[in-house]
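Researcher: Structure prediction, please.
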Amino acid sequence: MGPAGGPVSPHVARSDRLTPPINSASGMVLEEVLTEAKFTGVAADPLTSPRPHRNTYARTHPARHPSARENLADNAGVTKLDEIIDAATGETVSAASLLRMVKVVAARLETEQLADWVDRELGGYATDDDLPAYRGPFPAHVMGVFVGSCNSTMTRAVPSGALPAGLRDGFAYKVAFHQAISELEPLSQSEQALQNPWDANIVARVNHLIDEGNVTLVPMHHLATAYKVVTPHQIRAVVDGVRTRVLNLALDLEKIAPDAGEPDAAPVDAVKVRYVINNNIYGDGDGDAIAMGSAGAMQHTSVVKPGNLTSLLQAVAEAGLPPDEVAALEQAMKADIAEGAGPPFRLNLALT
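Model: Predicted structure follows.
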């Protein structure tokens, strides 16, 4: 898929470089100009007039700027979770920057699951990774470029019903997004549909079926190339999926640990944190995130990847199963797998 995205507004870039004007004689911020504009009601030009940016100069010159202590006090109550919530609800902070903010929280909470998710979103998913549901796979519309014997060329839809089940049921008609979020976000701003080309082996297979007379797509034509149509709306949904999960995660963490992510924050119940992470990040199909329990029971959620014995054993160990019983379970599961009665695994846990 090719790059896309429009140019950044020069007004935004120029405005971001503005700092409060300094009087060369006294070295003081010219707040008199700001005060005069405020009380006279004169509309200020954002590119030529000074703007009341209270923190830039005040933070670096507290002795010269008495309001510095007031500004610092105003920001003292802003937590990492507050910053994440503000960034996730707006559009000015990129999804990649938002994820790096979450990475700080994950590191300070020492939550490996959250850190792993952030790393995959920032760096991209491997082809054999289990994708979160918001990244696909999704059904895709396929277009083909056909070439005839007289060098005639035409672009036509390639209906899945015209191909054998082995082709139409595979990834030839599905699209999944493994790319890093920093690659997807600019593509989501494209004004045109994008193309995800078919593998050359699939094209060759279709042409072989045409030569054998088993498939007819365009009479007297062979398939030169084919591609899955990817709309910017699909990619935007992936980016929004990340932002929404981060927002929900921060809001839920705020309920159980308002200072989560702060350097000097008090220890947080690891089970409750794990539940919040699993419920917001993995609770949509990326493994089985299940929380069950009776009244008065503490809910514990464990993520068990289908077919992954290691994650199953880790989950039951975290739930409190004694080591000897974990070992016995491992032997029993391996025996079941050897007999063909193995994965996928499903796990429901309730701790009292």
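Model: Residues 3-73, 284-301, 342-352 have pLDDT under 50 and may be disordered.
Researcher: Thanks, that helps.
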